[in-house]
Amino acid sequence: MRYDAPLDANSKIITNLVIILALVFFCRQITDISHDAVSTTMLLFILVPVIVVAWCLSPRYYAITATAILIKRPLFSISIEMTNVVRLRSITEEDLGSSSRLLNIGGVFGYLGTYRSSEIGKYQRWCTSRENLVLIESDKQKWLISPSEADDFVKNVNKIINVAAI
To answer: In 3D, which of 93, 90, 91 has the Cα closest to residue 157?
Structure first.
């Protein structure tokens, strides 16, 4: 089964603003006849890779197969084996407590990377929205995703896990 990964309003705004900002800097770079646009050159060297990396790592959709949960991304998709899943549940932003960013991109094409929460500890966040959150836990790692229909996603994965356990 396949579940969409739509961007929430906040991510859409941040993503569009960053892209527009990069385009403005690019236009400034092209139209600069004095060849004194060092600051815009440096900003482009930062913004363009951030945009490309964020797009490559952002989830396009989530899929459930008989043996795995897939986080499909343009580059380096993630596969979580069903046999490794210990617990899977829907949660809210409030359930995370206070979170700190460890290594991530927050807002550009979603909320991506490694975070630490006061409630659940260290986790990987591959979300495009701050709603419809699903926490997947294994013995060694935790993932937070945001499929379009979180309750249906949890129900279908739990059916597979329970059938496999019998």
So the answer is: 90
Any bridge partners for residue 131, and if so which? none
H or E element that contains 76: none
Q: Which H, E and C letters describe the chain, residue by residue? A: CEEECCCCHHHHHHHHHHHHHHHHHHHHHHHCCCCCCHHHHHHHHHHHHHHHHHHHHCCCEEEECCCEEEEECCCCCEEEEHHHEEEEEEECHHHHCCEEEEEEEEECCEEEEEEEECCCEEEEEEECCCCCEEEEEECCCEEEECCCCHHHHHHHHHHHHHHHHC
Extract the residue ranges of the chain whose pLDDT is less than 70: 33-35, 37, 163-166
Residue 166 confidence (pLDDT): 38
Domain assignments of the chain as residue spans, ordered by start: 1-166
User: Which amino acid makes up residue 32?
Assistant: D
Nearest CA-CA partner of 153 in 144, 141, 166: 144
Q: Which parts of 7-149 fold into alpha helices (H)?
A: 9-31, 38-57
Give the separation between CA 59 and CA 46, rounded to whole angstroms: 22
